[in-house]
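Handoff note, outgoing to incoming analyst
You'll be picking up this chain. Sequence as last confirmed:
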Amino acid sequence: MNAYAPILVLGGLGAGFAIFSVAMASLTGPKRYNRAKLDAYECGIEPTPQPAGGGRFPIKYYLTAMLFIVFDIEIVFLYPWAVTFDALGLFGLVEMLLFVLTVFVAYAYVWRRGGLEWD
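Most recent structure output, in case you need it:
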């Protein structure tokens, strides 16, 4: 448990700072609301009414989210591998090459489906 104490303390400090910042901003910030501030902001595009059950989204949104998750998970696994690269030897290198190949297959799928084109 002693090895994880600094991590827990840092996580607690981060969470405490986040909660404190949000609370103080809501208490001390200006409270001048108008119609423009209360409207939904969609990159300068006027929001359109949506059906009651929600609208259909293009597949590109899901492909972009999938691509983000794939590369996010790749970084989570690449960092510890890079730290212990010397200790793993050839086995670690082969396993990481297989992992990167798997990630590349996901990237190629998203590219093929048009998830990287923003027309």
